[in-house]
Amino acid sequence: MRPASEDAAACRSLVELLQLRARLQPSDTAFVFLADGESESGRLSYAELDRQARAIGARLQALGAGGERALLVYHSGLDYICGFFGCLYASMTAVPCYPPRGNQNLQRLHAIVADADASVGLSTAALLQGVLGRAEAEGRLSELQWISSDTLGQAPPGAWQQPELDGHSLAFLQYTSGSTGSPKGVMLTHGNLLHNERMIRACFGNGDATVVGGWLPLFHDMGLIGNVLQPVYLGVPCILMPPAAFLQKPLRWLQMISRWGVTTSGGPDFAYDLCVRKISDTQREELDLSRWDLAFSGAEPVRADTLERFAARFAPQGFRPQAFYPCYGLAEATLLVTAGAKQVTPRCLAVENAALARGEVRPLPAADARAGPGMDRESSTLVGCGHAWLGQSVQVVDPQSRLPCGENQVGEIWVAGPSVAQGYWRREEASREVFGAQLAGSGQGPYLRTGDLGFLHAGELFVHGRMKDLIIVRGQNHAPEDIERTATRVHPELGASGCAAFSVEEQGAQRLVIVREAERNARHGLDIERISGDIREAVAAEHGLQVHRVVIARPAGLPKTSSGKVQRFLCRQLYLAGGFAPPGRPVERVAPQEAETAAAAAGPAPRSRHVGAA
Predict the structure, then answer these.
(1) Sign of the dihedral through C-alpha 273, 279, 281, 284
(2) Same structural domain for residues 517 and 428?
(3) Of 474, 452, 476, 472, nearest in space to 464 by CA
(4) 543 vs 562, which has greater pLDDT?
(5) Could you report the per-residue pLDDT of 20-33, keeping only the tens digit for each?
(6) Which of 522, 542, 375, 299 minimizes the C-alpha distance to 514?
(7) 45 and 99 together in one domain
(8) 456 Cβ partners below 8 Å, 6+ apart?
(9) Is pLDDT of 376 > 80?
């Protein structure tokens, strides 16, 4: 029997794809949602998802909104999935957002509405009461035509009309997570998405027996494209839970994998680390992870020591090291860019730090290239992220000369291929700069300039930081991830919730600042002076750097993106504005959103990315 995913290759749009599933597999389960992370609270078959998408699409068509942008403001859940497909069924461009939390201001939503020039908003009736109530006081959101998608009945016969869509039609704007500045809308077509889904299926080895599961935010590209669109492309079930359910109790993620027979799931490096630290031996005994054959790691650097600790910790539960699947991607390339072979132990490469700081790669003997502690005084252990697939091209390029780098030379990662997005919404100059790069001499291109640094070794891509995140002291390049790793290992009682290393200019020189966030259970009775001194000593010993200042921040004090990445650019702005306060004390001078305003005013900054992520 031909795998259902092969039929998807003939589809020209995501609307045709869902219609295909509703026709061939009407009663098959598409999505199951665990609202509390443990018990089933709702599910959708493919036929039910198609019916709800038609109802929402018919309502939007009645407004005459075809071709316009629709803001999606939902919590992660089934309503969001229906709303997303409903936009596509109306030939509208979806603009996924996340709802404000508590009293958080609406600045980001207002900025996205203005930039996208959205005319319609979709949400649930319960959430709209809170969002619209506050929007009336603040302005911009109240101008949208709002629809409570969960209150719509089934569309009458003939109310919905099939839209004319093809691979060139714009599907949605993926607003970057804003890790370093104001978000920009990445324009993704149906063709971009279908190609990336085909690529994910091929390199992940997904098929009819795949069961997808996860907790990643659905408004985030990895959650939407990996955990929503990939199951529909395959015609398989997906088990979902809210991000908060996982963060509150990491055991729930592995319980879901165990109980529902999930085969494909993943998340950022911190998620695996959290499971190692927060799941007890007693809790671990109830798990069966033997069917989990692909554990992708993404949205932040893949750490060799995290892979080793997680694999060792859960080996008795059937988890195999070969299940780990590091890969690389970014929103500007839809999602996935490079990946390796399935069921192969991730490749770890030990390299000399001194050479790496000069942009050269000097591998250590093979015996030293193990997934060990990640870094000592002379070496770093980096994790490979595979190679390009299905017509994609990846080059490592000298950003100054724009000439290709040789193997084992660090340069900027450039990407070309069918998954590369169409540019930034209504930002022609930025689109030309980022999406229109050409190699010097040959004029080959256009390429997407990712802003990520990396190198090729034996045909495999290794990612090593960001161009503008680099800390340059006395002519030497230092990746902030390496410094943060060192600072995090000092005083583990602070937890591993967040750390940011960046440089500031003082008295004509670049100075290193480290902000270390304390977890809530470590906030009282801290000897901040002693901790700061220990961090200074460790950074000096391992990196030969003098730390200008160490800041121990209160719990949840570090600005982070929706996927949990520390926003170094905003951290720097917040630090310069005097906005960090030690544990147990409130911020007196500036709030994080004010730092975001300062960051936006400072101009363009590096784009969001997924280092080692699918």
Answers:
(1) negative
(2) no
(3) 452
(4) 543
(5) 999 999 999 999 99
(6) 542
(7) yes
(8) 396, 405, 407, 408, 462
(9) no
- Domain CATH for 11: 3.40.50.12780
Whether this prediction's pTM lies above 0.85 is answered by no
243 within a domain of the structure (yes/no): yes
Domain that holds residue 113: 4-157+167-248
Angle made by CA atoms 494, 499, 504, in degrees to the nearest 5: 135
Alpha helices by DSSP H, 396-437: 428-435
Strand-pair category, 212-214 with 471-473: unpaired
Q: If you average pLDDT over every residue of the chain, what do you get?
A: 87
Q: What confidence tens digit (pLDDT) does each residue in 404-425 have?
A: 999 999 999 999 999 999 999 9
Left, alpha or beta for 578 (phi > 0: left; psi -120 to 50: alpha)?
left
Q: How far apart are CA 44 and CA 237, in angstroms?
A: 10
pLDDT of residue 559: 85
Nearest CA to 99 out of 138, 135, 67, 69 is that of 135
Rounded to a whole number of angstroms, the CA Rg of the chain reads 24
Contacts of 42 (CB under 8 A, 6+ apart): 32, 33, 35, 77, 78
Return d(Cα 21, Cα 49) in angstroms, integer. Answer: 10
* 80 and 209 fall within a common domain: yes
Number of separate domains in the chain:
3
The enclosing domain of 394 has a CATH number of: 2.30.38.10
Q: d(Cα 323, Cα 326) in Å, to the nearest integer?
A: 10
pLDDT greater than 50 at residue 497: yes
Q: Are residues 176 and 236 in the same domain?
A: yes
Mean pLDDT computed over 435-459? 95
Residues 99 and 152 in one domain: yes
Residue 246 in tokens: 């996982």
Question: Is the domain of 147 the same as that of 41?
Answer: yes
Q: Are 41 and 60 in contact (CB under 8 A)?
A: no
Give, for 191, the enclosing helix (H) or strand (E): helix 190-204
CATH of the domain at 500: 3.30.300.30
Residue 383: which H helix or E strand, with range?
strand 379-383
3-state secondary structure of 153: coil
86: nearest Cα among 43, 124, 34, 40 = 124
Residue finishing a domain among 433, 466, 499: 466
**CB hemisphere CA count around 224 (13 angstroms):** 31
Are 460 and 537 in the same domain?
A: no
Residues 560 and 460 in one domain: no
Structure-block tokens of residue 345: 């132990």
Q: Which of 248, 270, 295 is the last residue of a domain?
A: 248
Q: For Cα atoms 58, 113, 15, give the angle at the middle one, nearest 5 degrees.
A: 35
Domain membership flag for residue 387: yes
Calpha distance 81→507 (Å, rounded): 52
Find the length of the chain.
Answer: 614
Mean pLDDT in residue range 315-340: 96
How far, in Å, CA of 559 to CA of 497, rounded? 11
